[in-house]
Write a structure and sequence with these properties.
- The complex is a heterodimer of chains A (318) and B (128).
- In chain A, 43% of the residues lie in helices and 14% in strands.
- Chain A has helices spanning 3-10, 27-37, 58-67, 83-95, 125-138, 169-179, 192-205, 223-232, 240-247, 254-270, 289-295, 304-317; strands spanning 14-19, 43-46, 72-77, 100-104, 154-159, 183-188, 212-217, 275-280.
- In chain A, helix 7 (192-205) links the parallel strand 6 (183-188) and strand 7.
- Chain A is globular, with a radius of gyration of 19 Å.
- The relative contact order of chain A is 0.15.
- Chain B has 128 residues and is mainly alpha-helical.
- Chain B has helices spanning 2-14, 62-72, 95-100, 118-123; strands spanning 82-83, 108-109.
- Chain B has a two-stranded antiparallel sheet.
- The chains are: A alpha/beta (318), B mainly alpha (128).
- At the A-B interface, helix 1, helix 5 and helix 6 of A face helix 2, strand 1 and helix 4 of B.
Chain lengths: 318, 128
């Protein structure tokens, strides 16, 4: 049973975070990050070769996170797998007790560490979500053939409320929800006003009644990271005031200010109707997540430890 | 004959790749197969603020164009259709023939309206 599913249904403010698996075969790299996050978040995404850079697989990383008592959300992208491999990985995740999956299109290999790779994109994210829902609820493969035991994971999706065509973004999420998505994590939110307008559209479409919305947040701790988010990552909208605030600081206080902006953003997001929680992306700054949440008035998960012990056994067995 | 005629006309006008399962009638006549990720259900999240493609900045996102054309021509609701996975065995065949023979009847469907909300059904979640 997915602890995240229970949390989303509980009515309290839900927190997910991101756990990037290592470039290498060191399991402790995952265990260390998991230990920092497990008491503070309901679940953590284990990314699938993020930015098309080779890392430990999200399935392997998810198992290790589970062993360390952190509930994983296994990310799975359409970039590297055709429909055969996608279904196989989804079934495997079900068999190993991975409680949540997050299904997305994926970054193009052109941005990664193997730009000469063949992109797959046999399915798109909507079709992958559709496939997963059919697999779980109807116990059928894409070709219609039945499977022997249905997986049980919760199905998640992503959306970027700020990318053009912006008037279509709420409806695009509605398509994913119609296909089977039960929760969504968004791209970084800095422009809360624009995000609130997107949320209003979601409410009008009835999407918030069917799908939990976790708003993406994260601290910008250096001016280099600011530049990277503004120009290096496609589709991220960083309003000018963020840059002005960070640049106005002496260099030793930029990190602090970045954290402060993140805390304020969470406080504002909590007030928006339909926002179920936040998804904290703090690449390489997992140790700072508790402080950010604490200052934003989000309490640690008291049930985190007990809820995960049962699943720990599954992780070891696998 | 049909295959060659279709290729000759559609390649020039729409950048047709001869996928054999033409989505043009449901995409404001903008070919989704010219998207570097060949997405058939709408744009990815990497479109830049001015509508450029994240993969090839010289390209305008085909879905930005598709959305504009569909809205302007009064076919905005087409954007909400769910496009099924492609049959990759159809590459190089004529979508016109497939259409006349009814082989592409189920390329896309309208999202079902009467399904109970998932969260409410399964999680008992009441929106905040």
């Amino acid at each position: 049973m997915s602890g995240l599913r229970a949390a989303l249904g509980s009515g309290r403010f839900v927190v997910t975070a991101e756990l990037g698996p290592p470039r290498g075969a060191d399991p402790d790299a995952v265990l260390r990050k998991a230990a920092m996050l497990r008491d503070w978040v309901d679940a953590a995404n284990v990314t699938d070769n993020p930015g098309a850079h080779v890392r430990m697989s999200s399935l392997g990383g998810s198992l290790l996170a589970q062993r360390a008592g952190l509930e994983p959300v296994m990310q799975l992208t359409c970039r590297d797998r055709n429909r055969i491999a996608l279904q196989s990985d989804l079934i495997t995740a079900g068999a190993l007790g991975i409680p949540n999956v997050l299904l997305l299109t994926g970054d193009h290999p052109r941005f990664g560490d193997h730009p000469d790779a063949q992109p797959v994109f046999d399915l798109d994210s909507v079709q992958l979500i559709w496939l997963a829902r059919t697999l779980r609820d109807e116990g059928r493969l894409l070709n219609g053939r039945p499977i022997e035991a249905n997986p049980e994971w919760l199905i998640g999706a992503v959306e970027n409320p700020f990318a053009p065509p912006t008037e279509f973004r709420a409806r695009r999420l509605a398509k994913k929800v119609a296909a089977g998505a039960e929760f969504v994590q968004t791209q970084y939110v800095f422009d809360v006003e624009r995000f609130a307008r997107w949320m209003a559209q979601l409410r009008d479409l009835g999407v918030t009644q069917q799908c939990a919305v976790l708003a993406g947040v994260g601290p910008i701790r250096t001016l280099r990271m600011l530049e990277f988010l503004r120009t290096g990552v496609p589709g991220i909208h960083v309003p000018d005031w963020v840059g002005r605030r960070l640049r106005g600081m002496p260099s030793d206080r930029v990190a602090q200010e970045g954290v402060a902006i993140c805390v304020e953003t969470i406080e504002q997001l909590r007030e928006i109707a339909g926002v179920t929680g936040v998804h904290v992306m703090a690449f390489g700054f997992e140790r700072g997540v508790p402080e950010i949440l604490c200052r934003a008035g989000v309490r640690p998960r008291p049930s985190a430890r007990t809820a995960t012990t049962a699943r720990e056994d599954i992780g070891h067995a696998g | 004959l049909f295959t060659r005629a279709e290729k000759a006309t559609k390649e020039r006008v729409f950048g047709c790749r001869m996928c054999g399962q033409c989505a043009l009638p449901a995409t404001g006549y903008t070919c989704p197969m010219t998207c570097p990720k060949q997405l058939r259900n709408g744009p990815c999240g990497g479109v830049s603020a001015n509508g450029q493609c994240e993969v090839d900045p010289d390209l305008r996102c085909v879905w930005v164009t598709a959305f504009e054309r569909a809205e302007q021509s009064g076919h905005g609701a087409d954007m909400d259709l769910l496009h099924r996975p492609m049959d990759h065995g159809q590459w190089g065949s004529s979508s016109w023939v497939n259409y006349w023979q009814g082989r592409d009847d189920e390329l896309w469907v309208a999202p079902s309206k009467h399904k109970p909300p998932l969260l409410r059904r399964e999680l008992g979640l009441v929106p905040r």
